[in-house]
Amino acid sequence: MTKIKICGLTTPQEAGWVSKAQADYAGMVLFFPKSKRNITIDQAKEIMKYLPPQIRKVAVVVSPSALQIKEIQENGFDIVQIHGQVLPEALETLQIPFFRAFNVDNMQEWERYEAEPKCIGYVFDAVKPGSGETFDWSSIPNLPEDGKPYLLAGGLNPANVGNAIEAMHPDGVDVSSGVERDLEPGKDPEKIEAFVKIVRKA
User: Fold this and answer.
1) List of residues 6+ apart from 133 with CB closer than 8 A
2) How does residue 86 score in pLDDT terms, banded at 50, 70 and 90?
3) Residue 166: enclosing H or E segment and its boundaries?
4) Helix (H, G, I), strand (E, B) or coil at 6
5) SS3 for 39?
6) Active site residues
7) For residue 112, what are the CA distances in angstroms to 33, 101, 140, 165?
8) Do 100 and 122 form a contact (C-beta atoms < 8 A)?
9) 0.70 exceeded by the pTM?
């Protein structure tokens, strides 16, 4: 079954909607003020109270420091999703697994993480993560059967996720802007529900 990650949660209410929809992963953006979905560790801890244990909590970060990794680990996250650089000191500090995120301009680098035991999967995204832009899915390299799943991200929404699954057969799909309201900030419960239903049927 295709796994589902709803990313960019900013409120406990959104966590409730994700829980009701029974997604597999819930992502929260930390330490990245450029993102409109960036939240504090304290906000994340409050959000996580509304997520059941079976939904894995993902800290989404860009080039995190060892100190930031330590803070993530101390506050109940299950997985770290790393965009940007994976700094040696951050990797050394990691005691929980991580997803390595790639953009269309650095996808060939995934081979570096094939033998890294702390890396449990990959996220393939558009050039600007969180932008809601799609990309040429065929540009994803042919991955070996190394047992590590990959999540497809970048501009997915209820209207196109079925086609994406049919075309790429990813192990999981990752959505953020595609399940947000049109005229105001935040997630849309109806879009979350529609997205999950379509993925479960695909």
Assistant:
1) 126, 127, 154, 155
2) very high
3) helix 161-168
4) strand
5) strand
6) 7, 125
7) 28, 12, 16, 26
8) yes
9) yes
